[in-house]
What does this fold into?
Amino acid sequence: MTLRKRSVILFIIISLVLCLISGFSCKKNNKEVKKQITPSSYLYIFALDHIRESGFETVVIKDFAKQNNIGLRINLFSDLSMLMQTLSNPDYQGKVDIVMGLDNSFFYDIASSDYFAPVPEVSLQEIRYEIPRDSEHCLIPYASANLAFIYDSRKYPEPPHSFGELQDSKYYSQLAICDPSQCGLGRSTLLWTVALFSEQGYEQLWSSLRKNIYKIYPNPTLCLDAIRTGKCGLMFGYNTIPAWLNELYPSESHIKSIIPEEGSFLYVESAALCKDAPHKDTALQFLKYLISPNPQQFVMYKLAMMPVNGRTPLPTSFAHIPAIIYSHNNRLEQQPVQDSLQVWMSNWKRMMYGNIRF
It folds into this structure.
């Protein structure tokens, strides 16, 4: 056999051996990978779109799942009414563990215990004392903000200081608002005006404000975008928005907030454990994690709201926000709101969309 033939045969043998070794190694590695990614438990969450769009899902929910080797499934909804309708569907009973994005304005209309289980295992000792507690201990708050006038200080160096001033014609077509039938901010804004001006006065207020409304939006992000892009100069929104912008977008420090002279309304966002949650222990673990100081920092950076845990370190912009702001939530009683909310919303729609120009 010639030297050349021997070299070729030797090359073929070495190649075959290497292929066998590498194939065995790949199979072994595949088995190891499969073994590693087998979840220790699962978590099925219903949430609103902003939980993903803001990045909160990635840095909090997915991080929790990764740390604890949890299999995760999340269904997203554009509004809370649609979420709750789906949750009520018999096809989902006993399948969903957690619901996120539950705002306090929604629970004037229904009882939390109708859908969710009490969670006395989740301690609220570190939650700021001004955050209202659910009497049935079903709702676990994770974010809050006071409602305020958000304004572009380049357009309005001297902003409106009251709802009375906000009715001035110099703000014609400058106010962006959220629809109360589509998001918690809109519903809370409506309740804010009822709390301030009563059932007799809120219609007159909205009727006077109508000429100054630029556009009605389905969510706070689009509302704020209208100001950020210069389409209008005012909105009803969270008093924490300027702090969020200052931390992440310093060039937009001209967007500021002011609490009107009449007072504010406290907006609170919560999570809850579903009745018959299939993975109760994992869900409880997540709820405890959600209100611990480290995840709470992302409430500011992703949701543009204040953390509810009083031990959460605050960046400079958020530290300057007053800890306590006088709010009028306590003027609203559960039963009268439950009896009247749909009427208030119908009246609002009639006034806003009666002669539609938006």
About this structure: The first strand starts at residue 41 and ends at 48. Strands lie at 41-48, 70-77, 98-103, 139-152, 175-178, 213-217, 234-238, 255-258, 266-273, 306-307. DSSP finds twelve helices and ten strands in the chain. The mean pLDDT is 91.
